[in-house]
Amino acid sequence: xxxxxxxxxxxxxxxxxxxxxxxxxxxxxxxxxxxxxxxxxxxxxxxxxxxxxxxxxxxxxxxxxxxxxxxxxxxxxxxxxxxxxxxxxxxxxxxxxxxxxxxxxxxxxxxxxxxxxxxxxxxxxxxxxxxxxxxxxxxxxxxxxxxxxxxxxxxxxxxxxxxxxxxxxxxxxxxxxxxxxxxxxxxxxxxxxxxxxxxxxxxxxxxxxxxxxxxxxxxxxxxxxxxxxxxxxxxxxxxxxxxxxxxxxxxxxxxxxxxxxxxxxxxxxxxxxxxxxxxxxxxxxxxxxxxxxxxxxxxxxxxxxxxxxxxxxxxxxxxxxxxxxxxxxxxxxxxxxxxxxxxxxxxxxxxxxxxxxxxxxxxxxxxxxxxxxxxxxxxxxxxxxxxxxxxxxxxxxxxxxxxxxxxxxxxxxxxxxxxxxxxxxxxxxxxxxxxxxxxxxxxxxxxxxxxxxxxxxxxxxx
Length: 462
What we know:
about 450 residues, alpha/beta, Rossmann fold, 5-stranded parallel sheet, 20 helices, flat
């Protein structure tokens, strides 16, 4: 069994406000063959991590000032490759679950057995041993992240790119399936040829067929000229079939023929054409259940699922949230032509703690919302919490009731009023600047001011 201690002496930082207990933990770790250092506070721990090189952090949960959970969030945000083991004398299952959910690599309840500590440390370091053997590529053609599941996905993508086999990308909505498809294409031998995407769920069946296969002049009313389809446009390259689980049975038959034989006919033409394309498909739906229920052809499923790759949801790769957030901030700064907006450690920790059911897409939207709402201000934990509350639905399932809708309308109006007040305050009463800050026209601004009975006060401009 591989051990971190083989050929490597890991350095471990211990954070505990009890000097005697901290010294005991250091002594136990040193007897186990590790290098260890003890500090008394979370703040001192962050300074030590900033100035030194540590491979693992062992921290008490109860600390003066910044507590252990806040320290865990800060470490995950800034040093995602440093595993954290939490210690507490007040342990409980909920605390353990909270710590593990927040990204802890292990959790021990005092008093603990020395061998248990050594085993937890060794396990955590072994799980991160990949870092010592090969520095990972953090951004693979737009695929950002270094958590273990993402490293596995990147490895699968690199292998899949070398082949010509059909790839089926599966995962929840917003996990970045099209980004993964483009990463496969950009590493493949077909990278100099086109990458063509088709969103199958966005088109009704007749339009999907003509979009895919094209049509000839006179094929239907309005077909005044020949038009090549996406298959022809992707010749020599990659055709990405997004939301493949939403296509109708009759279209499934035509796709099966394309995948099996590389043959198709444009709408209105009887001559068979050949396609030289590499297929990548994606879906958030449970195709196995659809096959079992007769909703999706099993032969098409097997043709698509030659190389299946699962994209992990964001709640499984929380340690990648800081990198994803920073990339979004940098992109928005470039688009807006200003300096990079900043997120405080507390704000980043709150982002890491959120489940993000909409995954990367939800994170990107939230970052953009905060940049717009808090123009120029550092985004702290309170601002993240406020932005998250703004997006929470007021009902959980089924159609909203009249009371739900009234509540949502009231919330929307209240949000508009608060945004208007904030924009007028920031612009010092300059209505044109306030309208620009809100992204609305001056006429709309005047309408809002009249509706909410607001006056900008002394005007500094129009």
